[in-house]
Backbone:
């Protein structure tokens, strides 16, 4: 998502400096913040690089018209030293006492939510929302309309309890459909993977593919009859859902978090709660029109639409400097229904 936004901003003539891993490919000016992507590093190294990155940005902040942060909250500790207007896109969950305490101390920070559902736990607080901006990707050029003729279900994501991989395997077996799994295993999820997922991988209907490249992921989605991802948490936003829909592949999942904002039940797939209901949905997925799924995704979740929304948020930030109330800012920047 950050790459798609960066490339579209550059294409529109903005001068962009990207602070990211040194391995990043970008049309912007790259300032290496770490030698490898942070998710490849252990928590000790990751935090150290994040702190160093914030300090690097702070030192040269006077060079920029505005700063757009994607590091959650860490940079707020240096808010007094960064005079350049800044806006933060929040990517994670916003529930819990710790988050509420943090926002009580930083309620004036301009922030963007990635779904209306994400900000719901803080709905009773007066915060400086610049709006909800759904993620966008280069869907029309990267993903093609697939025929779904592979005869299999697909799971694309992380092997984690929140994504419901073990549930997806049991559902596929229950309805007698092959399930192809392209998943990454993060160290924090290793116990779950070993205890809940590995014992199910021996079933002949289950194909474990490991982590897929972008090209492999596109091919898997194009050939699948459905993306089966029965999430078990309040998902702030799921990129896998819009990637699947952009290939015409409908989605079978639970109606939690942002999912009802990304698709419509009965039009782009099905919502279900229990494993029996999920299995039943898999068996009637051929009633969903794949072309309509792709049209919906391309119109709602393109990089161009996302960048339009962020440009509106930038204009508000540079023009208002904290004058409008939060609800006025949200109304000004929200363009997606």
Residues:
């Amino acid at each position: 998502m950050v790459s798609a936004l960066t490339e579209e901003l550059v294409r529109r003539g903005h001068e962009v400096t990207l602070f990211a891993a040194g391995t990043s490919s970008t049309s912007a000016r790259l300032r290496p913040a770490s030698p490898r992507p942070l998710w490849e590093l252990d928590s000790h190294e990751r935090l150290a690089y994040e702190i160093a990155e914030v300090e690097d940005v702070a030192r040269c902040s006077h060079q920029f018209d505005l700063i757009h942060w994607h590091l959650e909250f860490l940079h707020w500790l240096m808010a007094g030293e960064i005079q350049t207007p800044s806006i933060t896109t929040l990517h994670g969950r916003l529930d819990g006492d710790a988050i509420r305490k943090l926002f009580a101390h930083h309620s004036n920070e301009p922030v963007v939510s990635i779904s209306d559902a994400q900000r719901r736990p803080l709905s009773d607080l007066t915060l400086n929302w610049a709006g909800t901006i759904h993620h966008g990707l280069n869907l029309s050029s990267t993903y093609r309309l697939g025929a779904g003729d592979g005869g299999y279900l697909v799971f694309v994501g992380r092997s984690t309890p929140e994504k419901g991989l073990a549930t997806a395997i049991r559902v596929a077996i229950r309805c007698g459909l092959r399930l192809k799994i392209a998943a990454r295993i993060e160290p924090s999820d290793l116990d779950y993977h070993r205890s809940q997922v590995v014992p199910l991988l021996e079933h002949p209907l289950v194909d474990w593919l490991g982590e897929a490249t972008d090209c492999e992921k596109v091919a898997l989605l194009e050939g699948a009859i459905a993306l089966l991802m029965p999430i078990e948490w309040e998902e702030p936003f799921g990129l896998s859902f819009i990637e699947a829909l952009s290939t015409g592949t409908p989605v079978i999942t639970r109606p939690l978090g942002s999912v009802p904002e990304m698709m419509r039940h009965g039009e782009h797939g099905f919502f279900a709660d229990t494993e029996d209901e999920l299995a039943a949905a898999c068996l009637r997925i051929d009633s969903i029109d794949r072309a309509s799924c792709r049209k919906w995704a391309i119109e709602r979740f393109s990089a161009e639409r996302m960048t339009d929304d962020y440009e509106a948020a930038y204009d508000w930030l540079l023009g208002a400097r904290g004058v409008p109330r939060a609800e006025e800012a949200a109304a000004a920047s929200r363009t997606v229904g």
About this structure: The CA atoms of residues 130 and 330 lie 5 Å apart. Residues 303-320 form the longest helix (18 residues). Residues 321-337 have pLDDT under 50 and may be disordered.
